[in-house]
């Protein structure tokens, strides 16, 4: 994550494979999908092409801070500035 874009790198030579613009943090693997925090929620991304295949709305309030996602079992955790939030599938 560059601070505004999430970039996927080739696992062999580290060349950029794709870039997703206007993101809030890095991608994380969750429930068999690649998930990227974006301003209006979570983008579900095809890891090979970088294409957004789905978006899930997440209300983060008015906070415009970087989001650091992590996975703990079936819980997606987001560090939003000083706040830690746990998200579970509905």
What does this structure look like?
The structure is a single chain. The strands form 3 sheets. The protein has a 4-stranded antiparallel beta sheet, with no helix packed on it. A 3-stranded antiparallel beta sheet has the order 7-8-9, with no helix packed on it. A two-stranded antiparallel ribbon has the order 1-2. It has strands at residues 5-9, 16-21, 28-30, 33-38, 41-45, 52-57, 67-72, 75-80, 83-87. It is mainly beta and 90 residues long. The chain contains no helices and 9 strands. The mean pLDDT is 93. The termini are far apart.
Secondary structure layout:
Layout: E1 5-9, E2 16-21, E3 28-30, E4 33-38, E5 41-45, E6 52-57, E7 67-72, E8 75-80, E9 83-87
Q: Number of DSSP strands?
A: 9
Q: Strand percentage, roughly?
A: over 45%
The average pLDDT value, as a whole number, equals: 93
Radius of gyration: 13 Å
Sheet of most strands: 4 strands, antiparallel
- The computed structural class is mainly beta
User: So how many helices?
Assistant: 0
Task: Specify the helix fraction band.
Answer: under 10%
Unreliable spans are none
| Straight-line distance between termini | 28 Å
- Per the principal axes of the C-alpha atoms, what is the gross shape? globular
